[in-house]
Amino acid sequence: MSADASRLDAYWMPFTANRQFKQAPRLLTRADGMFFRDDKGREVLDGIAGLWCVNAGHNRPRIVQAIQNQAAELDFAPPFQMGHPKAFELADRLARLTPAGLNRIFFTNSGSESVETALKMAIAYHRVRGEGARTRLIGRERGYHGVNFGGISVGGMVANRKMFGSLLAGVDHIRHTHDAARNAFTVGQPAHGAEFADDLERLVALHDASTIAAVIVEPVAGSTGVLIPPQGYLQRLRDICDKHGILLIFDEVITGFGRTGQPFAAQTFGVTPDLMTVAKGLTNGCVPMGAVIAQQKIHDTFMTGPEHLIEFFHGYTYSAHPLACAAGLATLDTYAEDGLLTRAASMEAEFAQALLSLRDEPNVIDIRNIGLVGGIELKPLDGQPAKRAFDIFLDCWDQGLLIRTTGDTIALSPPLIIESGHIARIIDTLRAALRRAA
Ligand code: PXG
Ligand code: PLP
Has UniProt tagged this entry with the keyword Endoplasmic reticulum (predicted)? Predict the structure, then answer.
């Protein structure tokens, strides 16, 4: 496809600087393993697993075959009052990967839909139990929970919220966990900040626990700049939730499926939530799919009343879509065959060391890591926030490397199949770009 500007007009691109893009389009046309190809035939190293989702790398034969076969066998099956075998099989397989107790799976089509589903489930759960006053939802500053109204309401990114009116009522936020003064350049989990969880006690004192349904946090905040939970923080949040009967929701859309070194961050950090949202790596990014994974006790609470009646009035036309289920099953097979759900743990030290070698490059003010996630925070250009990082993103693209930036933080989340040579290439390219941008 040519870069003829008029042919690019009709597509209003998501989360994109549309005018900048259409002046100099970046078009991806093929992908395999660790690499994309662009429309000019250039090879581009994928430093971010597509968008934190292609955890097994691109074009995996098992997954491709499964999707092709499924399209020819059963293209669609209505998900309401009907089922198809692969939906049950995928749910059963997922329930074996998750922490004990988290074994009831509700399918959606994205992370954003998973978040809406989990928030509704939490409020309805309390109501079914006879605590209908528990409707308040608590998020966290600098949280990202997708783009639907519930998700931006509990989310904590001002740009995603300020344009969209009054949002959902009855939402509040605990403070974020970022503390550069005490924790800059920490390898892995920061030592300081477990006490930030006590901010939940402040909100309980303000609103009373009897009005609070749930707290939702990302175990590792990705989109807001790779914020690693301080040691002890998540456990403290769990304890406070337990004390007050508040459900704890982990949004594992990014951290799920091996990103932090275990199948789920709940396992990496040893803290089990009541509800977990996933998407992205569930199908290796190949077909849109998400899920909410609920504690059995939450599911069972709904299973009352006359048996012919629907227990939870919620669902999507494409919940458990056959193509997504086929892709999901083949993805779990691929993860298992290649040992990918724990590979980030064995690569973590090498990746961290490579990242930290950028410490003394120009304008680097912090480096953060866990598993195969890295964040490199830059000093913003005076009066032009986000510009320095975006310029480095463009430079890296020119040099054949795809990275992500959010504000002035560079985020790396490569496919979990990454080898040492790829790590070296990512770091060398970034180093050169940082020097050029100085
Ligand atoms: N929750 C979390 C924690 C996410 O990271 C979503 C929900 C929403 O998922 P969907 O599938 O509706 O996009 C996400 C998605 C970035 C970036 O650059 C991250 C996401 C999406 C877009 C960009 O970090 N994460
Ligand atoms: N809008 C209308 C008019 C619909 O009929 C439906 C579903 O039937 C939806 C929205 C929701 O679509 P989905 O189930 O794909 O989320």
Answer: no
